[in-house]
Amino acid sequence: MTKTVVHMLRHGEVYNPEKLLYGRMPGYHLSELGVQMAKAAAQAVAERDIAYVVASPLERAQQTADPIATQFKLPVAVDERLIESENVFEGQRVGVGDGALRDPRNWWKVRNPVTPSWGEPYARIATRMFAALLAAREAAEGHEALCVSHQLPIWTLRRHVERKRLWHDPRRRECALASLTSFHFEDTRVVGIGYSEPAAHLIAISPSAKTAKGA
Length: 215
Known about the structure:
By secondary structure, this protein is α/β, with parallel strands linked by helices. It is 30% helix and 18% strand.
């Protein structure tokens, strides 16, 4: 029996003074706090058996992966399947009670939370993320892999693996900034899922980190 662990790491805080839903938009990089979060994540896995590091192509994910890859003297591979989900509100303010959600012209876009009607279907996110998970397991077989992705894709993957309905309340996601969702394999079968927040102490002192958009 071969045991492998694949860690899904959400990137750190992004510099986003306008509080936009940045989604896949280019140019959104880690804030100074986000850099510290990436370092905290690297420290958390310093004693792990990381043999493969891969990240979403977006800048914030690449930056978060960098200190971990450097620590283990590994390159950062890129997997397009780890990218943030599509969203029609990208580039807009979409906080509850303000921005795009106040405009009646946009209400049609949020008519169906199950699909969802405002972005990439949950089933498609789950399919591509699960494929990325299996690819990372194969690349690090017998060791550990670390994948840097984004909140919604990671949470959707977890619900898919746990065989829970993919539609959910976003306020109840267990996927904080720079958190690790770890999938434990025996051969090709997931036998357990762990969760940790190595940057929790940094989030606690930063109001902006608690309200990150498009992460």
